């Protein structure tokens, strides 16, 4: 007696419904990234190599090396480096105090909550807050003059300057450093300190030979992130100093608006230079973060 074999019907569906739902869930992010990040960036990159008539040119890239534009880049780099280093140094000690310093848990939660708010506090509100505090008629300025006879602006201090802008930027740089570095400090294992103590190492030797070498990729990477964060900031600087401090974002804003020579393509080239600088900083940050994560596994 012979049996007839029939092909087994495939039970696997042609379309994975779970996969479709997953893609639908992430689609708003993809659309948002395309419309407000990827497509505008590509538009700037292409426009940097075009004339206003649409012809290919390298003149816009060459004009980046004119003294006025190079000066704007140099001022922006100095402000970004100064605020990044200051924010990294102060933020590190704040994060160390709440994670490893033995402070109450309530202090840690309060600091992290404040850091989450302050790291996003920028633009016109931040500029107004500093003008109301450290301006020529600010609260602290008047308090120091009336109560202690100390004229802050008599020392040469000026909020509408390189030093003043750096201090203002540090207001959101320090909390950002605290937020990013706290998980790295939490990842420091107690066994490392106990092993160093068993071997006779002092607290100073533990930090210089064990802790800091492990934390160094996180510290350097976060400092690079702070640099990129300050380099692209415009709202705070424009609201605080106007056009008195010629940093790159303000120059770019004026160029695209047509306040100067009305060459939008040169503005695209200026934006391309900013993209390159911040892109390199972010790539280095990601590489250092991956290295730090390998150390702490």
UniProtKB/TrEMBL annotation:
Q: Which family does it belong to?
A: Belongs to the binding-protein-dependent transport system permease family. CysTW subfamily.
Query: Chief subcellular site?
Result: membrane
The membrane-spanning stretches of this chain are: 21-51, 71-99, 111-132, 152-185, 206-227, 233-254, 266-288
Entry's PANTHER family? INNER MEMBRANE ABC TRANSPORTER PERMEASE PROTEIN YDCU-RELATED, INNER MEMBRANE ABC TRANSPORTER PERMEASE PROTEIN YDCU-RELATED-RELATED
- Any one annotated GO CC term: plasma membrane
| Domain named ABC transmembrane type-1: residues | 73-285
Q: What is this protein called?
A: Acriflavin resistance protein
| InterPro entries linked | MetI-like, MetI-like_sf
Coiled coil ranges (UniProt) are: none
> What membrane topology does the annotation report for this chain?
Multi-pass membrane protein
Query: What does the record list as GO biological process?
Result: transmembrane transport
Q: Which domain of life is it from?
A: Bacteria
Cellular location(s): Cell membrane
> What keyword terms does UniProt attach to this protein?
Cell membrane, Membrane, Transmembrane, Transmembrane helix, Transport
């Amino acid at each position: 007696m012979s049996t007839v074999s029939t092909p087994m019907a495939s039970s696997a569906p042609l379309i994975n419904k779970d996969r479709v739902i997953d893609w639908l869930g992430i689609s708003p992010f993809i659309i948002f990234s395309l419309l407000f990040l990827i497509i505008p960036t590509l538009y700037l990159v292409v426009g940097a190599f075009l004339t206003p008539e649409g012809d290919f040119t390298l003149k816009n890239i060459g004009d980046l090396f004119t003294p006025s534009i190079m000066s704007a880049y140099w001022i922006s780099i100095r402000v970004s480096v100064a605020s990044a280093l200051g924010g990294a140094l102060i933020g590190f000690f704040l994060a160390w105090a709440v994670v490893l310093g033995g402070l109450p848990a309530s202090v840690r939660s309060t600091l992290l909550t404040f850091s989450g708010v302050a790291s996003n506090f920028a633009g016109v509100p931040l500029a107004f807050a500093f003008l109301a505090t450290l301006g020529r008629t600010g609260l602290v300025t008047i308090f120091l003059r009336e109560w202690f006879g100390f004229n802050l602006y008599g020392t040469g201090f000026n909020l509408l300057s390189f030093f003043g802008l750096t201090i203002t930027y540090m207001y959101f740089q320090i909390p950002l450093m605290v937020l990013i570095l706290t998980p790295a400090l939490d990842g420091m294992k107690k066994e490392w300190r106990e092993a160093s103590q068993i071997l006779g190492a002092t607290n100073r030797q533990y930090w210089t030979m064990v802790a800091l070498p492990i934390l160094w990729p996180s510290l350097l990477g976060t400092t690079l992130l702070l640099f990129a964060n300050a380099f692209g900031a415009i709202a705070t600087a424009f609201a605080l100093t106007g056009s008195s401090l010629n940093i790159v974002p303000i120059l770019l804003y004026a160029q695209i608006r047509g306040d100067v020579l009305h060459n939008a393509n040169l503005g695209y080239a200026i934006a391309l230079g900013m993209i390159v600088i911040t892109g390199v900083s972010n790539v280095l940050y990601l590489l250092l973060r991956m290295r730090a994560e390998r150390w702490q596994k």
